[in-house]
Design brief:
The structure holds 2 protein chains of 2 kinds. Chain A is an alpha/beta fold. Chain A contains 7 helices and 14 strands. Chain A has a single domain, classed as Glutaconate Coenzyme A-transferase. The relative contact order of chain B is 0.16. The chains are: A alpha/beta, B alpha/beta. At the A-B interface, helix 3, strand 9 and helix 4 of A face strand 5, helix 4, helix 5, helix 6 and helix 7 of B.
Chain lengths: 252, 325
């Protein structure tokens, strides 16, 4: 048995996408682990910020919400929502957003609003929050998902946040100048999007996860021809994650 | 004359502030964001006074939103997000009310709601953005068509149009401005001359206050003029925007106030446990809202041990090492 958890693997798999100079829009849960791990392991010159307006907090403790006092502590600047969204879409910045969702489709469009009919839902979720905004504006979106058939669906019950919309150049035609879905990080592997068609393909299976298992848990046809096995977490990556990123074990 | 002659006409009790300014059917913008700086004392008082048919307008909200909905005060809701961090990834009574069809609701995003308040503050009827193009936020209206003609309800949720300044089919979304009847908010400090200072993140509180007809501010402390005017760069609202000021320490409990106190994990976990069931939620309201005469009595029930545990380190802003599970 591997000696790391799904959340640890997901945080590291997503963190590996972050480069020095990236401005990282973090949410809560695994997303904040990934952002903090990225900064402490792979990209010390990346900047983490929150839609609530906290920019580059020290993150000595893990925030449990994007309005947690911990996103205001040790920052270079505390502002508000409008200022925060002026960063997400800023033409001079390369912004990567971490999001989560209840449903995703093959073009990386996300649903965080309802299951069932919008007006009389079977299950109501929190709603867009800033997700629709960052999906519209960020240079790239990395989405965390539990890899299940009911979550990887042919058609979303509600399209909260636009990824590649209907594929091809349809996102641009909507009037969205940049951005789009960059990757999907699940408890089984990592998906990316074809450069031309913008459909999701399997890029990485985690160690010990078969391609078949991923296909079985995906509710649409997915290209697996380019799949490779992910590098397992190193001892040092796990140490930083456990001892520095989330020592209180609030998320891990 | 009271202790603070310059704000004598604005300084009120919680009870009077709600009685004077909040009516059945009022459109209200709430300050704060999910687990932080919710004007809870005001929300509890609104519940105690049995205010009905509120039209809430907000971006991402948590505890105050959920208590107001759960207590049956809310008829209509325009919202981006109902959640309380890990204590309620989706606000519990909000979720139930929508699933049961008990409230009218319409979804926007955080930036969109913030821009709508900004437009209201600037006195412009609508404001453009690129956010939401292609999404169901734009495609689906939440409110039934028959209420579109009512006061304080926009005639349309959005308009998608061409950018009039170019000719290549560049699309924009127009958002209707918001001018709520009342904005309620909780701040750390109000000066004895009425200036408001929010420390930490302001969220959209300032835009909300400037967009509203009436502004009620509760605060942790009333501070001397010499203090609030020593560093005016730190201030959030000039006195003339504020109609009512209530000094109410721990007025945001169980949500957090930067440099003052953290969110109260114990109480939020208790709430999570009881909110899921109609009977236990009613018992919660009976015990913690209807059953206490004042916020002081509520704090006595919370207890000094908890209040010490959540007390923030004034330098770091939060309660270091607080058990948040």
């Amino acid at each position: 048995m591997a000696d790391y958890t799904d959340n640890e693997m997901m945080a590291l798999a997503a963190g590996r996408f972050i480069k020095n100079g990236d401005i990282v829009f973090a949410g809560t849960g695994v997303s904040i682990l990934a952002a903090t791990a990225a900064k402490r392991i792979y990209a010390p010159k990346a900047v983490i910020f929150f839609e609530t307006g906290g920019i580059d907090p020290s993150l000595d403790e893990i925030p449990m919400a994007v309005a947690d006092l911990r996103v205001m502590s040790g920052t270079c600047l505390n502002s508000g929502l409008i200022e925060a969204f002026s960063i997400v879409g800023h033409r001079k910045l390369h912004t990567i957003a971490f999001l989560g969702a209840a449903q995703i489709d093959k073009y990386g469009n996300l649903n965080t609003t309802v299951i069932g009919d919008y007006h009389k839902p079977k299950t109501r979720f929190s709603g867009s929050g800033g997700a629709c905004d960052v999906a519209s504006f960020a240079s790239g979106v990395i989405t965390f998902m539990q890899h299940q058939k009911r979550r990887f669906v042919e058609k979303l019950d509600y399209l909260t946040s636009v990824g590649w919309y209907k594929g091809g150049d349809s996102r641009k035609k909507l009037g969205l100048q940049r951005g789009g879905a960059m990757a999907v990080v699940t408890n089984l592997g990592v998906m990316k999007f074809d450069e031309t068609t913008k459909t999701m393909y399997l890029a990485e299976c985690y160690p010990g996860i078969t391609i078949d298992k991923i296909v079985e848990n995906t509710g649409f046809t997915i290209d697996v021809s380019q799949a490779v096995e992910s590098a397992p977490p190193t001892a040092e990556e796990l140490r930083i994650l456990r001892e520095e990123v989330d020592p209180q074990k609030l998320i891990l | 004359m009271g202790m603070y002659p310059e704000i004598d006409d604005k300084l009120m009790t919680l009870e009077d502030a709600v009685r004077c300014f909040i009516k059945n059917g009022s459109q209200i913008a709430i300050g704060g964001f999910t687990v932080t700086r919710n004007p809870m004392a005001l929300a509890y008082e609104i519940v105690r006074q049995g205010i009905k048919d509120i039209h809430l307008v907000c971006h991402s909200h948590g505890q105050a939103l959920d208590v107001l909905i759960g207590a049956g005060c809310v008829k209509r809701l325009e919202i981006a997000y109902g959640g309380n961090g890990r204590y309620a990834p989706t606000c519990i009574r909000f979720k139930k009310a929508i699933q049961r069809g008990e409230i009218q609701f319409e979804d926007y995003s955080n930036y969109q709601m913030s821009l709508r308040f900004l437009a209201g503050a600037l006195g412009i009827p609508f404001i453009p953005t690129k956010s939401g193009l292609g999404s169901d936020l734009i495609n689906l209206e939440g409110f039934p068509p028959e209420i579109r003609k009512e006061k304080k309800v926009a005639s349309k949720k959005y308009v998608v149009t061409q950018n009039p300044f170019n000719s290549w089919g560049d699309k924009v979304v127009l958002l209707p401005a918001l001018n709520p009847d009342v904005a309620i908010m909780h701040a750390q400090y109000v000066g004895e001359e009425g200036t408001v200072r929010i420390k930490g993140l302001t969220f959209a509180d300032i835009e909300q206050a400037k967009s509203a007809d009436i502004v009620i501010v509760t605060c942790e402390e009333i501070v001397p003029r010499s203090f609030i005017r020593l560093d005016p760069d730190q201030n959030s609202l000039p006195p003339f925007f504020v109609d009512a000021i209530v000094k109410i320490p721990y007025g945001a409990h169980p949500t957090a106030v930067y440099t003052c106190y953290d969110y109260d994990p114990k109480h939020l976990n208790l709430y999570k446990k009881v909110a899921d069931d109609d009977r236990t939620f009613k018992e919660y309201l009976d015990e913690w809202v209807y059953g206490v005469k004042s916020h002081e009595e509520y704090l006595e029930k919370i207890g000094s041990t908890t209040l010490f545990q959540i007390k923030a380190n004034p330098v770091l802003g939060y309660a270091v090492g607080l058990d948040r599970k």
